[in-house]
């Protein structure tokens, strides 16, 4: 069938376009000496972050060099530490030995998290005489007590993997952030321009769902106060309280998804609103550094990362996410069948049964001229129930995306 071939080609081209140039997990998997380091790259989702960067250098540690520090710290600290070992530049062994003036600073993934102050997020690389290259924190008074030991893998100008002798420790990097369960979520959201969202999750009790989920991983997309003022946002007062809860739960995922993981999510993602009856899922698209969430009804750009601390990520977004389960516009104009139920003239009713999404629950329309009593009473009332959502809320096809960050 020509259509399916076309479909397949389309699918293949999409898959090819989204495949990363490199896979750090795969590169490290061939050497059991790096198994701990590799396992932590996966657990902290840093592997996704590394794969989504086009020019990167990973400084790896053997199990012997890494196990002590790994054993004594929580995952959130290990993530900070490992992200200091990922340089946002390409250094192969040749380049290491050709650093101009013998010393340079390189920005790391840790710098991009926004929690690094001053030079703490950078690494000092110094070409010592006699062929040795040393690494240390770029923060003042740090020691250069880690050295280059060997090359592991290079894909020229995309990824270089180098083994070093000891962890690079920056001041304060081993201090654990407060546990997510101690976090004042409402205060954090309010301070980042999301007062409306914050008060809605409190009044509906959705915050309790968030709190009970957070330990196993949670990602929250908090629409800004501006987003709630958009004319495309339906009047929440017209929704049932269960629908408001679903709408709010749709803004969270029961998984820790930092930026790199969002960028590499190819499939649709389930949300906290996902249940047996409703998919309530999202898809993600990426253009450069910009990440956009798509609901099927509208889309929203991710504006800022408020918090990225394993196992919790909080982002602000520019538009309220409108799930198709609640806001898909009905394909045909919604009739007002309830007023026609007692009407004695079925001919004047514009066959509401035809608009019911599940024709099997409705009987065929009564032939014109038959007495109204022959028309089953529940048929139009079913139709009324099933079209009510579509009729009550009219939503435009896509939300206006504004702002910057
Ligand atoms: C990377 O490689 C690992 C191990 O070979 C594999 O399990 C994983 O699916 C790969 N990831 C991607 C994004 O291709
Ligand atoms: C790197 O550290 C060494 C030793 O502390 C220092 O002399 C050098 O100036 C530093 N390099 C840069 C680029 O700051
Ligand atoms: C390196 O990255 C560039 C840009 O993503 C890509 O076009 C190129 O194919 C990559 N090179 C290799 C050897 O994978
Ligand atoms: C959290 O912060 C809000 C103010 O934003 C405050 O009203 C509330 O008492 C705080 N909760 C806790 C448990 O500290």
TrEMBL record:
Give the compositionally biased regions (Low complexity): 350-361
Q: Where in the cell is it found?
A: Cell membrane
This protein's GO CC annotations: plasma membrane; side of membrane
Q: Which intervals of the chain are annotated as region Disordered? A: 331-405
Instruction: Name all FAS1 domain ranges.
Output: 21-168, 181-321
Classification via InterPro entries: FAS1_dom_sf, FAS1_domain, Plant_FLA
Give the matching SUPFAM superfamilies.
FAS1 domain
Which domain of life does the protein's organism represent? Eukaryota
List the SMART domains: FAS1 (SM00554)
So what does this one do? May be a cell surface adhesion protein.
Spell out the family assignment given in the record's similarity comment: Belongs to the fasciclin-like AGP family.
Q: What is this protein called?
A: FAS1 domain-containing protein
